[in-house]
Write a structure and sequence with these properties.
- The complex is a heterodimer of chains A (213) and B (396).
- Chain A has an eight-stranded mixed beta sheet with strand order 3-2-1-4-5-8-6-7, with helices on both faces.
- In chain A, 34% of the residues lie in helices and 23% in strands.
- Chain A has helices at residues 10-18, 34-43, 54-62, 99-109, 123-132, 156-166, 186-189, 205-212, and strands spanning 24-28, 46-51, 67-69, 84-90, 110-118, 169-177, 180-181, 192-198.
- In chain B, 34% of the residues lie in helices and 15% in strands.
- Chain B has helices spanning 2-12, 144-157, 171-182, 201-215, 232-246, 249-255, 274-289, 292-304, 335-347, 365-368, 371-386; strands at residues 27-31, 38-39, 45-46, 49-56, 66-70, 96-97, 102-103, 108-112, 127-128, 133-134, 165-169, 189-193, 321-327, 352-357.
- The longest helix of chain B is centred in the last third of the chain and has 16 residues, at 274-289.
- Chain B is globular and about 65 Å long.
- The two termini of chain B are 39 Å apart.
- Classes of the chains: A alpha/beta (213), B alpha/beta (396).
Chain lengths: 213, 396
Amino acid sequence: MEIVANGIRPDHQVIFDMIEPGSRVLDLGCGTGDLLDLLARDKDVRVQGIELDERAIYECVRKGLSVCQSDIESGLAEYPDHSFDYVILNQSLQEIKKVSFLLREALRVGEKIIVGFPNFAYLHARLCLFFGGKAPMTPSLPNRWHDTPNVRFLSISDFRDFCAEKGFVVEKAYFLNGRKTITFWPNLRALDSIFLLSLPEGRGPQERKSRQC
Amino acid sequence: MIASLKGESLETAPEGCNRSLGIVETQYYTFAEPPEALRLESGGTLGPVTLAYETYGTLNRERSNAILVLHALSGDAHAAGFHPGEEAPGWWDAMIGPGKPFDTDRYFVICSNVIGGCKGSTGPSSLDPRTGKPYGTKFPFITIADMVHAQRRLIDFLGIEKLLCVAGGSMGGMQALQWVASYPERVRSAIPVATALKHSPQQIAFNEVGRQSIMADPAWREGNYYETGQPERGLSVARMIGHITFMSDRSMEEKFSRKLKNGQLSFKFDADFEVEGYLRYRGANFVKRFDANSYLYITKAMDYFDLSGGKLINGRAIDTRFLVISFQSDWLYPAYQSQEIVRQLKLNQVDATYCELRATYGHDAFLVELEGQTTLIHHFLEKTYRGERNGNGNRR
């Protein structure tokens, strides 16, 4: 995700466009807060970040952002139901062990969630594996097998199946290849994807809790 | 990366950064003359009440740049700058001054000695107007909330409606939290550092050993020692225990290891090891500057403090911003206690930033490991002061 348009990362631009002005946003793994800064400044969004890295937190505070140091895998228990309009999980899904748990939690505290991840089934990745016989490396999967922070290797199709299985509603989905938006054959041609998800009507957090009992 | 961040924060600081405040002076404010005595949480009253305080910087015309800095157990009103003839500056001088995080070119910084203290504010060593003698143990029990109510009177007297920030470490952090619990509408932001919503049994236990040490000293005489000299042995042991809890295993190893004071074992009960010498020195110094009864009263106030279980926010919609800081090697006020503060803030949708700073010095880190604190507090205050915060959003 190194290609920059107008100084804004393409994935940030997509997420920025998804979010209604004046809303409340929680960014899980907000890094140095570039996206939150954009949202706070240009869309009057009330933002909160969660980040593990101390130096990234310094950067967020320098930008005037509110950010709490925490491991997002430890959950979002302290946030009340629907305390945010959007919960963002951009480029961190693939580093999460308890994917299902975290997405459900995110859908409890947020009305909608925005999930961005690299596509493991991108054409070049398939070629790497098929012809090269090696673990794929692409612009969105830049690390070698032994130094990648990723623990989940999923494709766009995998994620669609997952959403269907879990009953998450895909409201929007965007597919990116650098600066370009991909419409056709995204699972083959897109490097990254960004999904806007919600729970179906009548399946709010209360109902979800009772289902767990 | 840390180095470059540090460099950046220095670049953004005004020219002549880290200048000293120079000579400063303690002032005094007396109020609550009977029958208007200050009502205390214990049911008792205290009056008249004198608060020793210092101020640094200038209050702006809008009176919107005032910061109340709150001291820890053994601190005082002298937070920064120098008193005439003294070599050591105030206790948080590294953080308060021109170009420092609490930038006195920009903010008006206030620090007062707590009630119950012995550094100019009314405490057990003050004269009881009814008897003309020191209060001793006739001094009423005070709480952190009582300390804060007294500070509020000082803030009223200084003509400040809303503080830009309340900030402090350890017991100072407790007072910062209490300010928000008692007067949320008068606090724009709070910086509780290395503190807790309540003392754990371990923290109470260390305080109790300190108190027992004082009260077991025959010189304590039920607190009536002001004519005979204070229980120096008991108070110095209490302070020695305190110093052990302020350090980490690693910082003690780095500082003392098993180094010997005189190069060889004495085979006597002298201080053979440097760590023994250090503790004795600290203890002996402390009794020269601190009143044993104040130690009893203030540690009790810390142990009684309890804003857990929702009492910090009390279900109110609070627009105070928080910067909560803890330190990795602090085992006296461990990070989980700061995380519990943050949890309460999140539950109540209060604007919060939290960071557990890498540090090796244990609880002492809040006074000595300044790099992370400097960066965070500098930018947090600047953005809060300018009102550049976070978007507004539609809060429910």
